[in-house]
Write a structure and sequence with these properties.
Shape: globular
Distance between the termini: 14 Å
Strand content: under 5%
Number of helices: 16
Radius of gyration: 21 Å
Order of helices and strands: EHEHHHHHHEHHHHEHHHHHE
Strand order of the largest sheet: 1-2-5
Number of strands: 5
Structural class: mainly alpha
Low-confidence stretches: 1-15
Helix content: over 70%
Largest sheet: 3 strands, antiparallel
């Protein structure tokens, strides 16, 4: 727990005994449990089955992508349905560096994410000219432009896609272990990065922009620069998830990489778990993975079930499952708010 005196009259703060609380004992216990779980998870390749590692990589990709969408929309107020553009770009950049530049694909994963972030800078010039629903549809159109463009490049297999051949010289067990460790590192970095950012002044500025851009700008916040930074970071995370996913999948195609289903699934996870909360994508990703693993064979009924679950949650748990638990029992694993306590 960290507490600092409230700015103002020193005698008033001292006499009232009021402090600003930014953490709780439950938060400290959760941190200790998380570190212990991380240490156990890091040893999984030494004793676990390969199928477990593949499942974790899949969950990690879902989670990182959903967390970035939550940062963009839940905290920044920029509702995009075209984040799959950067997911696909990250995957294809990784493949190009591996297959054509002779680079180790695992080294190419972060470089693919960086390439997606760099592409987001000129793309933002077009996207930020749109507002509200037009912004959402515009980002989808941009993603479709990338999909059609990649589908017309024969060097990467065109519309049918291609295989990541750069991993042929690496053994299966080594490949699966390294992919798993990279996925684990990405999850930890994503949670820690978003948490520290939201606790900073820049995080407060972003949430102020989400609530009212005009009021935020009147208080001296550089609105456009902050939105551009968050848009680029969200693209970086989406590109990282895409590069990591296709390193594990070994094959990529435009329809798989740039499918709108990626953003639809991210929205589902964030809404189910709780939008505007770090814990939301974690809960949502676990629920979505479980539903996908055990019920995806049901075909149309599975998709109808996802839709029904989303409707029920939005009607009866308007802040998501974790938001409901937080309001009812005060649960908060990653507190970013500041509370006045006496």
């Amino acid at each position: 727990m960290s507490a600092v005196p409230i700015p103002g009259e020193p005698w008033a703060a001292a006499s009232a005994g009021v402090t600003v609380q930014r953490g709780t004992r439950a938060n400290q216990l959760a941190l200790a449990a998380g570190i212990l779980l991380l240490l156990v998870a890091a040893t999984l390749p030494l004793w676990g089955e390969s199928s477990w590692m593949r499942e974790f990589v899949e969950i990690a990709c879902y989670f990182v992508f959903a967390m970035m969408w939550n940062l963009l929309a839940g905290y920044g107020g920029m509702v995009s349905i075209g984040q799959q553009a950067f997911f696909g770009l990250g995957g294809y950049a990784m493949l190009a560096l591996g297959n054509f530049a002779g680079m180790n694909p695992f080294v190419a994963v972060p470089l693919g994410a960086l390439a997606a972030a760099l592409v987001a800078l000129p793309v933002s010039w077009v996207a930020f000219r749109l507002q509200g629903g037009y912004f959402a549809i515009g980002t989808w159109v941009i993603a479709e432009v990338f999909r059609l463009g990649i589908a017309n490049i024969p060097a990467v297999g065109g519309g049918s896609g291609t295989t990541l051949t750069a991993l042929r010289g690496i053994g299966k067990s080594t490949r699966e272990s390294v992919t798993y460790w990279m996925a684990l590192a990405c999850v930890v970095a994503c949670i820690a990065g978003v948490y520290l950012f939201l606790r900073s002044k820049q995080g407060l500025a972003l949430q102020a922009i989400r609530d009212n851009e005009v009021a935020a700008e009147s208080q001296g916040i550089a609105v456009r620069r902050m939105k551009l930074a968050v848009y680029a970071v969200a693209a970086l995370g989406a590109g990282l998830a895409g590069a990591l996913y296709f390193v594990g999948n070994l094959r990529i195609s435009p329809d798989a990489a740039f499918s709108v289903n990626w953003t639809a699934f991210a929205i589902f996870m964030v809404v189910i778990g709780g939008i505007g909360r770090i814990e939301g994508p974690i809960v949502g990703a676990l629920i979505f993975w479980a539903l996908n693993k055990f019920f995806s064979d049901w075909g149309t009924w599975y998709l109808m079930g996802l839709g029904l679950l989303a409707i029920v949650v939005t009607l009866f748990f308007k802040k998501g499952l974790w938001g409901y638990a937080q309001e009812r029992w005060g649960w908060s694993l990653f507190p970013t708010q500041r509370r006045l306590v006496g």
